[in-house]
Every structure is written in C-alpha cells, then in structure tokens.
Amino acid sequence: MALPVASKGPAAPGPRPASPVSAAPRIASLVPSVTELLVALGLGPRLVARTGYCIRPADAVAGVPKVGGTKDVNLAKLERLAPTHAIVNIDENRQETALALRRFVPQVIVTHPCGPQDVDALIAQLAAAFGAEPGVADRARGLRAELAAELAATHPTGRAEVPVLYLIWREPWMTVARDTYISRMLARVHWQTWPDTTGGPAGAARYPALHGDEPWLGRVQRVLLSSEPYRFGSRHLAGAQTLCPRAQVQLVDGELLSWYGPRAAAGLRYLRALAGR
Fold first, then answer.
1. CATH code for 162-274?
2. Which whole-number Å values give the CA distances from 34 to 104, 106, 145, 204, 264, in the listed order?
3. Is the backbone peptide bond immediately before 65 cis, with ω within 30 degrees of 0?
4. Long-range interactions of 71-80: CB distance < 8 A, separation 24+
5. Of the four listed, 122, 142, 211, 251, which is most buried by Cβ atoms within 10 Å?
6. Are the C-beta atoms of residues 54 and 32 closer than 8 Å to each other?
7. Phi-psi domain of 32 (left: phi exceeds 0; alpha: psi -120 through 50; beta: other)
C-alpha cells in the first residue's frame, strides 16, 4: 500500500471519448496489488504501464514502463503509451488523477475492496473486463475458489477478541481505521484494531496519526509493525514498545496483510499462523 493523502478517491467512471477498437487491451495499472493480480490472470503481456510501487511479480513487471508513483502519476508519459484501460483505486490514487485519465483512456476501472471478502468481486470485475483474453476466465475461477476456501477457514468464531495496534508509518506514528482492508483482514481472527474509529470511503482519516498518549494504548495486547509502506525493522521494536508497554510487539509482512490481489488467500493463511491457529 502507498501512504494515503487527504484527497477524495477517484470518481466513478463516466462517459469517455471513443477510440479505435484494439485487437488486444493495453493496460495501465496504477495499483500495486492489482498489477500482481493482472499477471496472475495471465494479463502480464497486456501491461503497458505501471507505477514504481508495482514491483510484484518482479520478473513479469521488470520490462513494463514506470509512470511515476501512485500519487504522482506522470500523465504525459502515460498518454504516450496509449493505454486502452487504466486501473485505479480509491485508497491508492488521487481523484484528480482518475479525472485526468478520462481525457485519453477509453476505459478507467475504479477498484475499492475494503476487506478480504471483497476480493472475490475484484477478481470478477477484472475477469469481466478482460475475459475475452485467453485463459483469464479459468484463472479467475481458480483464484476465486482458493479465496473462498481460505475465507471459510479464517473466522473469529471461538477466538477471544485481541486489541491490536497496526502501525504503517512513524514520525508520526500512523495506524488504520476500522473500515480499511487491513483492519477487516485482522478482524477475521478477532483482532480488533485501535483506535475505535472509521475513516470514511476515502482520504487520510482512514489512516489516523497517533499522539502517543491515547488512553487506549495501555489496553493494546499486540503491536504489529508492517513491512510497508514504511519498512519497519528490528531497530523500531523498542520505540513501538514504548507506545504499548504491555503489548507483544512484532514485525509482520504488510504485503500479505494489505495487498488484495492473489495475496489475499495467502494473507489469510499467514494471518491464521500469526494468530496461532
């Protein structure tokens, strides 16, 4: 995930200029986890643009041109690459980027999964857009079946609620609101993220900053330091421990817990292992 900013999410797609029919789609993915999902669906050869954060799988995306970051897309370069489709995300990309894309991209696909259960619809959304490409429909069915099995195996039934602080940034410390994908992922094993707040459909409130003196910090039992967007390491464990002196502090794989493409199923398995089941 990229560090969020205080802006509205991409607007829903509206009318776009007509363009010549292409024999094959030319896809620009501005969402790292969606880039990985497109490759998993067999659409890697159709990628003509990606962000600098779209790094998975490395061998498949190495030759795909970069067009800046998720928040600072080089629109002029992207236009020269002539995509027929651009994929954006309400959390990852700016609304103004989505609006600008409409000038020269025939189809802008807006994504916004807010929990692991929403990944099924995301896969179906991309399969509907690119299902004419060989093998896409079959691969989509396989991914959806794997996800369904992991969702069924990962549930809070019989688990005691555990207050959790999930940190994504430092200076200032930043965490996640309860209506984010990460928080809803953790809730699958009854890990309840703090603070007790929702951030709304888009914007920086979804990833609140901490002052460090919040009363509820003393009740937190586990502090999870994500590997991204800030790459926490062992040198940060002591600092995080001062926030929640009674908590267990550990490093976690942020890609498995926050990327919502093909990693969703693997992320659920990883989460169960973290929770000890």
1. 3.40.50.1980
2. 21, 19, 18, 21, 11
3. no
4. 71/2, 71/5, 71/97, 73/30, 73/97, 75/100, 75/101, 77/49, 78/28, 78/49, 79/103, 79/104
5. 122
6. yes
7. alpha
Q: Amino acid identity of 193?
A: T
| C-alpha atoms less than 13 angstroms from C-alpha of 130 in its C-beta half-sphere | 32
CB contact at 8 A, 225 and 247: no
Confidence category of residue 18, pLDDT binned at 50, 70, 90: very low
Any idea where the domains of the chain sit in the sequence? 27-112, 162-274
Tokens representing 115 are 């929990």
Query: Do residues 91 and 30 lie in contact, with contact meaning Cβ atoms separated by under 8 Å?
Result: no
Topology (CATH level 3) of domain 27-112: Rossmann fold (3.40.50)
- Taking the C-alpha atoms of residue 156 and residue 138, their distance in angstroms, rounded to an integer, is 31
The model scores a pTM over 0.85: yes
Q: 22-36, 64-78, 175-189 — which is least confidently predicted?
A: 22-36
